[in-house]
Amino acid sequence: MHRSRPAVGLSLAVIVMAGVMSGWGTGRAAADPGPDRTLYVEAYSPVCNDSGTGTESRPFCTVQAAADVVEPGDTVRILGDYSLSPHPEAVALTRSGTSDKPITFSGAPLPSSRLKTVLATPASAPALTLKGVHDVRVEALTFTDEHHSDVVAVTGSDHVTLDQLTVDNAAPTVPVTGTAIGVDGTSSDVTVSRNTINPSTAYGVRVAPGAAGVTVTTNMILSQQQAGIAVSGAADTDVTSNTVFAPCAAGVSLDGGSSGVVENNVAITNGSMQTSACAAPTAPLYAVSADSTGQVTADYNVAAHSASTSAPARTEYSWAGTSYATSGAFRDATGQGTHDIDGINGYPTTPSEHSPLIDSADATAPGELATDAQGRPRVDDLLVDNTGNGTGHPDRGALERQDTLTIAAGDVPTPPKGLAPLGISMKTDATSSWGAPLTYSIDFGDGSDPATGTPGTPAAHTYTTPGLYTTRLTFTEPDGTSAEKSYAGVAAGTATPPGTALSVAPDTASGQVDPGLARFTVPAPADSWEVGYRTLTYGDGTQDNLAAGAQQPTHQYPAPGTCTATLTQTDLLGRTTTATAVFHAADAFVAMTPQYDTEKTIAAHGVLRLSAATLRADSNGVDAVQLQLVTSNAKAIGALTLYPHGTTRPGTADTAFEPGRTVTAETTVQVTPTGSVDLYNGSSGAVTVNVATVGLQSHAQYADTYHPAAPARLLDTRTGTGGVHSPVAGGHSVTLSVGGTHGVPVAADAVVLDVTATTTKAAGDLTVATHSTNDSIVSGPHWVTGQTATTQVVIPVYDGKVVLRNESKASANLVADLVGWYGTTANGSEFLPATPARKTVRIAAHATLKLKVTGAHGVPATGVTAADLNLTVPSPSGSGYLVAYADGTARPGVYSLSFTKGHTAAGRALVRVGTDGEVDLYNAATVPVNVYADLVGDYDVFPAAS
């Protein structure tokens, strides 16, 4: 009689990936020639290509592409993604291997991040067809069969092995006809082993008439509608050590003149698993037709019922058309089944201890494997008498009872940490549930030879080199059964703890800076393995825990200010080291298209509250706004003061006004967390004020830094500077190039100018606009006939140009002086709001006064590049102008503030600061003047951190 070749010692291939076809690549694949290659399929790889070579770095997208080019000796690894999505393919393999160089299709070893490989069965064809091939092995693949149709088909093929496949889908609720694994009548020498076939189809394994030499062994087959294993008209077909859960149909059936052996199988009924498709199953668990009984041997099989079965009486055997209710009746009548078992409760799981299934199978049965369906060895249970035949002592069915090795909880290195050289001791206590003798082996993880011995004898070891080690303790029985316990984290420490380092800078993106968003750099220490944990406290009451390696955490500070961040590092031995970095959270400038957002009349000594929405300060992290104030219709002399709502009004002023004159001034004011600002009228009479927002200062937006310039005259129509040689007529404009001159890049986002009108022939005003269709316009100075008036303005630029327009009815000479510009980060400065403070000074005629601005009122002592001031000259006794510039530099020929005899003048002066922290104020008048210098903020060098 034919004895199928046992596939002894089949390896347990691990199941990987899932993925639908990516659609990359077309055409027939052309793999590189060469012997014993590995071809790769990875549907979700961004570089997969079916016209490629199938390398690991450039895999095929589809299994069919590999099947079309595979050669003898090749292995096709079907890699997976991370989602269990299936390949919706109908793969047809038509290429063969040789006896010494078979072709293998397999799931690759399973990386921890990947899932098992899934092939979907389409409705039109099996998921996999082996057509006219030989010497082919397919292993470790999972199939999903939502159509309940044929899954794997072997046609016209020989010397084929299907091992460790899984067919997985929900049980059908209506009658179906498909077969999970089918072998047609023109195939021979086919091994179907260690597969798991879940409820999905009509037949689990089906062998058609004419097939020969088929071995169906060690499979788990659950709840098929028609039969778990059905063999019809096949010669030399052996059905060995399968577990068939058959509540709805026959477990194993052979008919049509089949021949072979049926041994060591377990067939189980369970009425509670009945469905609408098989409400009252009557099929026998084992059935051999009359035309097959003369060529079939049956023995060592099991007919079992689940403990909770509610099935009607079920025939266990049908032999030559006669039914037998019990194994005894079957044996007595036929002489078959001499060692069969029934009358037990069972379920398709590993046999429970002392089950009659244990060590009772025929080890010499054709197709009996050395491993069970899960790849575990067939072993001798020492608690059960051996009642089977032959050596090896296999259990009946597809699953083998294993010994339970228990490793004591105290089998850990002691002490687990300390300075190198570190001596440890390790207990070696373990027990076998079968009472088997054990030996141990300890790999200490440092390259030394393993320690070996018998349980109960502690092992000692010394780690001489600092490091973090993993110990592996393995206990082994004489039959090879083993259990392992690992302890990761034996720390033999260095003499000194690993060092720490910390640096910080504001975060930048596309040339802009978020000056309140700190990006910390924490390098990995030389002995990063020794780091236990690290905590970074940011100095604002918050902290984060960091991993041991190199890190670049970011932190958004809630407000401008100086914070000291501290990195505290604790090593595995409990030793701590620290490092600090100082971060100067500040603001960046967001240029706005000026809009006159509100116009109100404020009563004498009244307060106008300006909301965040009005000021457009209701965006992320706004700490201050730059405003332009235009006062008119004043009923008395006075000044306006801006300050955060809800705070004490400072003794400073942002602009001055008087009856009969319109006055323009720009200023900077802090806002509350809600963005509100109060505007106080310090006059005894009402005044109308028009407010426009020209920019925001934010610590939480990517925006621009400020670049203070050496003050320079860009336009003077009296002298021809700037290309205009005569006064500008009323209603006419001058286009002025700012970008590309005096260090201002063409790509600057905004410029700061002092603009002046002089030798005025009639009352009027000046506007400054961008040279584009953007319509960004701010108001320049207003004047009365004959007055020289100066105002500082901030204006967005888009092409490096601005337009000055004389809105008067008569001509005036126009002057424009460069103060600075806003743009990308290189050499730029960040803004810090200051506590408003006033300094009153008197400056003699043609004299210069030094004004210290650093080191007080929240202004840093160093790193300050510019001061944001409001200058007021109250009731001067003569006319003239002030020049504000950096101390230690040559006095520029520019206007910072113009004043007229008897009329108070006020305006903003954004002034470069000298290296000594001082600014100079020069009085160009022929009379001495009093000056109020009000500090509202400062600019610091970027990055303002250390």
Strand order of the largest sheet: 1-2-4-7-10-13-16-19-22-25
Annotated CATH architecture of the largest domain: 3 Solenoid
Poorly predicted residue ranges: 1-34
CATH class (first level) name of the largest domain: Mainly Beta
Rg to the nearest angstrom? 45 Å
* Share of helix, binned: under 10%
User: What is the mean pLDDT?
Assistant: 90
What is the SS-derived class? mainly beta
Tell me the number of strands: 70
Using the alpha-carbon principal axes, give the shape: elongated
| Through-space gap between termini | 88 Å
Structural summary, described in words:
The protein has 946 residues and is mainly beta. It has seven domains: 15-85 and 95-118, no CATH class; 86-94 and 119-344, Pectate Lyase C-like (3 Solenoid); 405-493, Sandwich (Immunoglobulin-like), CATH 2.60.40; 515-576; 588-698, Jelly Rolls, CATH 2.60.120; 705-823, Sandwich (Jelly Rolls), CATH 2.60.120; 829-941, Jelly Rolls (Sandwich). It is built from three helices and 70 strands. Residues 1-34 have low confidence and may be disordered.
Q: What key phrases describe this protein's structure?
A:
ten-stranded parallel sheet; 946 residues; mainly beta; disordered N terminus; Immunoglobulin-like; elongated; 70 strands; ten-stranded mixed sheet; Pectate Lyase C-like; 7 domains
What's the gist of this structure?
This protein is mostly beta strands. It is 2% helix and 44% strand. The chain has 7 domains: 15-85 and 95-118, no CATH class; 86-94 and 119-344, 3 Solenoid (Pectate Lyase C-like), CATH 2.160.20; 405-493, Sandwich (Immunoglobulin-like), CATH 2.60.40.10; 515-576; 588-698, Sandwich (Jelly Rolls), CATH 2.60.120; 705-823, Sandwich (Jelly Rolls); 829-941, Jelly Rolls, CATH 2.60.120.340.
